[in-house]
């Protein structure tokens, strides 16, 4: 039987390397298989710059298209913002995470005080719960949702939850809960390239293509 | 068209997939916001009309053919493969309930251009033999007779004679070296002859040379609506050949949304090279005349009026300000519809939906969105710049027992034209 300390060493060592390699190579392969298909040239006379349109849309889509959209999709927009912002605050501004990034990549930045991280974690968990309930209750989302949508929800929820539990020492020994936290992140990294989590990277391409197609026509998409 | 089979359809789907399509499918997180942007969902409440769901057949082909994991799992028989039955089921979603209006493409938070995808999915549907009967008939007539509504040049000649009599002007046919080649939509030839008279008067007053062409008078392109590049190419080629043979500087697209999309944006890609002429929508041309002092009007409309933005002109075409500037010349009591301009709601009959008999009931149901928009304004007249929108608006208003005249912008301008020449 593996002890908690051994378990922690394993998830921090070999398992982390495996997850990191799958994540990095997976993302590269997925981006290449997308970009290598290519696209046909557009011979139509452009009204405005496609390039400028592409860049514009990358930024514009961080905001809802109009107030009508905001009114019709309020829950998913608000809970979506809170979840994404909260998740990135916790991921990138929690001091132990910054130290890990420093050890791995050699770059670092200033973190936020832990009470703020703690609040952001709770907000993120609540937003995720709202998004799950919305997915189960809203007729459009219930209709659209596949097994993957629920699996990804769980795989995103678990690192945030276990992180919170580890920070507050909810499970003893501490090494065990920390190991579970790291393992849940590794699971997320492993499935990342093969699921909708890829949108983290591909949405910039999608927005660029959409904005470039519209921009050529003089439409601010 | 060669015989349609599932295999040909599958190959056509595969051929249509490019990097943008892959980026779009990779990015979808199933947030459902595209449904709320689509009048087929908002007016029916049926989630099957969610735009991204309409693209399941295309997604399956992308996953099976263009992703390593998809190829692997389908080799092992773990993936649900696309079937002919899927396509039969999706015909209603890809044709009857999508007008290519593009609201979803503007709303999607990850940036998916869903209309770009539907347009491509239709190529696969045609090749597989799952396109609507009404559109197939219209496309055959367009190829064989020269016009989807079966209009022949003789019909147009009768129109021309009538217009010449009414206006006292000569309507030029097959003139070389003139500035503009004017093409028409079937709707304008059959239902709205006022358009041709308006053009004759406006060109005369602006001192511009123009012509109609006996071999290329029809701008309606059923190939685009049904999703067949082969047919679309044949039809657009008639106009390209005419324009280049007559050495015109500019081809004027009529008051017809999709004709503009075909001529202005898709045409060069269909023939595989840039044009040797320009393409402008009539509204763009009129606005250029206005800016250059070539369009003088007198008097104002008394009626309280609003403008219905044709989707292919605003969201898919970039002609947003021009109709407003033109209306400003002749209307004092102009009010904007809610969501006017880039976010306007479709009439429900674009993208070929108006040619599908089976879609009529649904189309009338979703017209409710336009009804709500119009009721808030309490206007006396509705102006638009697309003959197809105009027909659908008239039909919808009739179905909902609303008494509201629908007018084309070009003829409204012509009615106020200063005729001093």
Brief digest:
Chain A is mostly helical and 221 residues long. Chain A has helices spanning 4-12, 14-35, 50-60, 67-72, 74-93, 95-105, 114-137, 139-144, 147-167, 174-191, 199-216.
Quick one: CATH class of the largest domain in chain B?
A: Alpha Beta
Number of domains of chain B: 3
Assess the beta-strand content of chain A as a share of residues.
under 5%
Mind telling me the C-alpha Rg of chain B? 22 Å
Tally of separate helices of chain B: 22
Could you tell me the number of beta strands of chain A?
0
Q: The biggest beta sheet of chain B, please? A: 4 strands, parallel
Instruction: Average the pLDDT over all residues of chain B and give the rounded result.
Output: 95
Q: Name the assembly state.
A: heterodimer
- Helix amount of chain A, in percent? over 70%
User: How large is the share of residues in beta strands of chain B?
Assistant: 5-15%
Mind sketching the topology for me?
The complex is a heterodimer of chains A (221) and B (421).
Chain A: H1 4-12, H2 14-35, H3 50-60, H4 67-72, H5 74-93, H6 95-105, H7 114-137, H8 139-144, H9 147-167, H10 174-191, H11 199-216
Helix pairs in contact in A: 1-2, 1-10, 2-10, 3-11, 5-7, 7-9, 9-10
Chain B: H1 6-16, H2 19-27, H3 33-37, H4 39-42, H5 56-66, H6 68-75, H7 84-96, H8 103-107, H9 114-127, H10 133-144, H11 153-167, E1 180-182, H12 186-190, H13 194-206, E2 210-211, H14 222-226, H15 229-245, E3 250-253, H16 257-271, E4 278-281, H17 282-291, E5 305-308, H18 322-330, H19 360-366, H20 368-377, E6 381-384, H21 387-399, E7 406-408, H22 409-415
Parallel strand pairs in B: 1-2, 1-3, 3-4, 5-6, 6-7
Write structural notes for this entry.
The complex is a heterodimer of chains A (221) and B (421). Chain A has helices spanning 4-12, 14-35, 50-60, 67-72, 74-93, 95-105, 114-137, 139-144, 147-167, 174-191, 199-216. Chain A is mostly helical. The longest helix of chain A has 24 residues, at 114-137. Chain A is globular. In chain A, 31% of the residues are buried. Chain B is mainly alpha-helical. Chain B is built from 22 helices and 7 strands. In chain B, the strands form 2 sheets. In chain B, strands 2-1-3-4 form a 4-stranded parallel β-sheet. In chain B, helix 17 packs across helix 18. The radius of gyration of chain B is 22 Å and the shape is globular.
């Amino acid at each position: 039987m593996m002890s908690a300390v051994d378990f922690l060493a394993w998830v921090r060592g070999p398992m982390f390397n495996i997850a990191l390699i799958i994540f990095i190579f997976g993302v590269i392969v997925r981006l290449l298989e997308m970009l290598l298909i290519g696209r046909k040239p557009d011979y139509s006379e452009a009204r405005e710059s496609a390039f400028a349109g592409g860049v514009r849309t990358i930024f514009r889509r961080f905001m809802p298209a109009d107030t009508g959209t905001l009114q019709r999709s309020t829950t998913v927009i608000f809970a979506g913002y809170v979840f994404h912002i909260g998740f990135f605050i916790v991921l990138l501004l929690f001091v132990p995470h910054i130290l890990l990034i420093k050890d791995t990549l050699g770059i670092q930045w200033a973190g936020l005080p832990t009470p703020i991280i703690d609040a952001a974690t709770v907000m993120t968990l609540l937003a995720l719960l709202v998004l799950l309930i919305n997915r189960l209750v809203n007729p459009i989302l219930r209709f659209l949702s596949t097994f993957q949508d629920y699996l990804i929800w769980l795989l995103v929820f678990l690192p945030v939850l276990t992180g919170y539990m580890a920070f507050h020492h909810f499970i003893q020994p501490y090494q065990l809960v920390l190991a579970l936290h790291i393992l849940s992140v590794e699971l997320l990294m492993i499935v990342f390239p093969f699921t909708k989590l890829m949108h983290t990277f591909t949405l910039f391409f999608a927005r660029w293509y959409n904005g470039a197609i519209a921009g050529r026509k003089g439409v601010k998409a | 068209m060669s015989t349609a089979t599932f295999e040909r359809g599958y190959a056509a789907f595969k051929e249509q997939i490019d990097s943008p399509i892959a980026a779009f499918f990779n990015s979808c997180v199933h947030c459902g916001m595209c449904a709320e942007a689509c009048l087929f969902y908002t007016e029916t409440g049926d989630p099957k009309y969610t735009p991204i769901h309409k693209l399941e057949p295309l997604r399956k082909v992308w996953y099976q053919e263009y992703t390593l994991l998809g190829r692997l799992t389908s080799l092992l028989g773990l993936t649900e493969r696309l079937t002919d039955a899927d396509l039969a089921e999706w015909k209603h979603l890809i044709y009857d309930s999508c007008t290519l209006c593009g609201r979803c493409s503007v709303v999607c938070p990850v940036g998916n251009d869903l209309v770009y995808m539907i347009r491509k999915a239709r190529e696969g549907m045609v090749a597989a033999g799952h396109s609507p009967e009404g559109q197939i008939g219209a496309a055959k007539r367009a190829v064989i007779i020269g016009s989807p509504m079966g209009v022949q040049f003789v019909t147009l000649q009768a129109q021309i004679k009538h217009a010449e009599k009414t206006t006292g002007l000569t309507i030029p046919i097959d003139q070389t070296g003139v500035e503009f080649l004017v093409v028409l939509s079937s709707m304008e030839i059959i239902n709205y002859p006022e358009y041709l008279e308006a053009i004759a008067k406006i060109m005369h007053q602006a001192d511009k040379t123009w012509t109609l062409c006996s071999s290329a008078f029809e701008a309606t392109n059923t190939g685009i609506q049904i999703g067949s590049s082969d047919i679309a190419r044949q039809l657009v080629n008639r106009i390209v050949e005419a324009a280049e043979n007559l050495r015109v500087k500019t081809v004027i697209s009529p008051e017809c949304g999709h004709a503009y999309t075909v001529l202005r944006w898709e045409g060069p890609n269909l023939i595989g090279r840039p044009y040797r002429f320009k393409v402008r929508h009539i509204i763009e041309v009129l606005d250029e005349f206005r800016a250059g002092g070539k369009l003088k009007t007198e008097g104002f409309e008394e009626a309280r009026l609003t403008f219905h933005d044709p989707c292919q002109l605003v969201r898919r075409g970039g002609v947003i300000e021009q109709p407003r500037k033109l209306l400003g010349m002749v209307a004092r009591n102009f009010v904007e519809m809610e969501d006017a301009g880039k976010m306007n709601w479709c009439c429900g009959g674009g993208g070929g939906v108006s040619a599908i008999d089976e879609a009529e009931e649904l189309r009338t149901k979703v017209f409710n969105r336009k009804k709500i928009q119009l009721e808030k304004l309490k206007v006396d007249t509705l102006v638009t710049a697309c003959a197809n929108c105009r027909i659908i608006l008239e039909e919808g208003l009739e179905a909902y027992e609303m008494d509201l005249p629908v007018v084309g912008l070009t003829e409204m301008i012509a009615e106020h034209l200063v005729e001093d020449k």
